[in-house]
Amino acid sequence: MAMYKPSVISLTKRQGHTFGFYLRVEHGEEGHLIRCLEMGGPAELAGMKDGGRILRVNGTFVDKLSHSEVVDMVRNSGPTVTFHILDEASYVQAKAQEVNLSNPQSTPVANGVSKQDLKPKLCYLVKSSSGYGFSIRSEKSEPGLFMTEVMQGSVADRAGVNVKDRLLEVNGESVEGATHEQVVEKIKLSGGSIMFLLVDEETDRQYQNKKIGAWLATAKHLPHQPRIANITKGPDGYGFLLKEDVNQRCHFLRDIDRGSPAERAGVKEMDRLVAVDGKEVEECNHGQVVDMIRQSGNKCCFLVVDKDTDQMYKKGKVSPMLFLEETGDSSSPPSYSEALNLPAPVRPSTTVQAKEEEELKPKLCRMEKTPAGYGFHLNGIVGVSGQFIKDVVSGGAADRAGLQEDDMVVEVNGENVEQSSHEEVVALIRSSGSSLEMLLANKSVYEQLKAKGVSITRLLLGGTSYAQVHTADTPEEEEKREEKARPESPPQQERERAISSSSQDSLDERL
User: Fold this and answer.
1) Is 80 left (phi over 0), alpha (psi -120 to 50) or beta?
2) How many alpha carbons fall within 13 Å on the CB side of residue 74?
3) How many CB atoms lie within 10 A of CB 379?
4) 286 class by beta-carbon count within 10 Å (0-12 exposed, 13-18 middle, 19+ buried)
5) What Å distances lie between residue 264 and 1, 49, 218, 319, CA to CA?
6) Closest to 451 (Cα-Cα) out of 4, 83, 7, 39
7) 390 and 445 in contact (C-beta within 8 Å)?
8) Helix (H, G, I), strand (E, B) or coil at 205
9) DSSP letters of 172-193?
């Protein structure tokens, strides 16, 4: 493995932004490929190169995992993720020589800067049918209990447990000074899941003779992460109810209004509120929390956890505030109107600003099906979310409604489809009958709004009207339009090609 030394790159993204690259698997190519690096994005600045292969995500070897599994691991990492990456030439050569690439050796790099990120780590394991996949050893000559026989691809391996890690806590309780038998018994009594606090050899040396606890740990290995929701108050408020569980001293968000500021910020039904503007609310009563939200003015920043995340943190007797402290991100993102003018150092004139706001808006298009169909293709990479428009027939229903090549589909008949599969979007369109309404955004507009953390909804339309499809005033005019909509193909062929999928030879995901 000395010849094939991967680099370790830690990326941190801002709330609502991406890491600035696409993760792809391609027909005829092995591994998880890095593609389409965003110029000036975190990935490019950190030194990622096109064609590089991701070997590990947060310490877990992923070269043998499926594309969707790796995508989920990255998405569940929150705003910070660590990759082991091998350049393309070395990867291809290593595969040809059947080299075992599962042993990482390299110097960590954080957004382009080398670092020593020496922290104890929290690792959460959910038992599978084959167990956890590790053993514990103790030696008379060396105090402490250590991880050994961590099976590749096992629950322990995927959770970030490494051979020679020293065990400090089990489910939030210290096991330093405990016997081997006592720790084994604790693990057996833990049920189907367990939380470990561990240190590797180097971190252990750094903290020698110092008290180590979960408050010092990194949470980046944990499979579930809290969420930061930056909410800007709307005309009808934030769009949720705050409910207190008096017995548990917990505050839950209920009855999230559809399309409300809370929903657009990512708040989910029955999320537990952990902090408001960086201040923990666990010891506050209902009235105190309401006052904190009111004092925030028109913007507030929530730290929330869903049920699974909450149970996981409680298992380790550690507060989700650890996540907020580690990310250091408690600031609110710019509002929509503010985001339109970033990062320009000078505020544009009223005329220019109005033009920019007009350009950075989606469009609502309505169309009536003709005998030739709608006259467009729906393209998407199989198994990957995100659908876009292709092959708009000149003069067809879609063309007259304002659809253009590469428009990104946001909603179909009022239902958001950004995370829907190609098949699901096709089914929605087919079930719409003879009329169709779509919220779309030009590809450039879509990417700019997403990069600025702006949720794309009909609210961005403001007073702008949609592109309404009008029926012809006379049968003769309608007939002329239909003829123009099908210049080369008979009606039946047009209907068959109105919706299609793109090549199945690749999968990609923007990260």
Assistant:
1) beta
2) 26
3) 20
4) middle
5) 47, 34, 29, 26
6) 39
7) no
8) helix
9) TEE-TT--HHHHHHHHHTTTTE
Q: In the numeric block, which tokens belong to residue 3?
A: 């010849």
Span 261-280, mean pLDDT? 90
pLDDT more than 90, % of the chain: 26
- Whether 444 has a pLDDT exceeding 80, the answer reads yes
Structure tokens at 103: 């042993």
Place of tokens 């800007």: 232
Closest CA to 112 of 36, 247, 182, 19: 19
The H or E element spanning position 304 is: strand 299-305
User: In the prediction, which pLDDT does 117 show?
Assistant: 58
| DSSP for residue 370 | B
Distance (Å, whole) CA 325 – CA 318? 13
What's the length of the chain? 511
The kind and range of the H/E element at 401 are: helix 397-401
Q: What is the mean pLDDT of residues 19-48?
A: 85
pLDDT at 401 over 50: yes
Residue 309 has a CB neighbour count (10 Å cut-off) of 22
Retrieve residue 142's tokens. 């060396």
**Cα 229 from Cα 16, distance rounded (Å):** 10
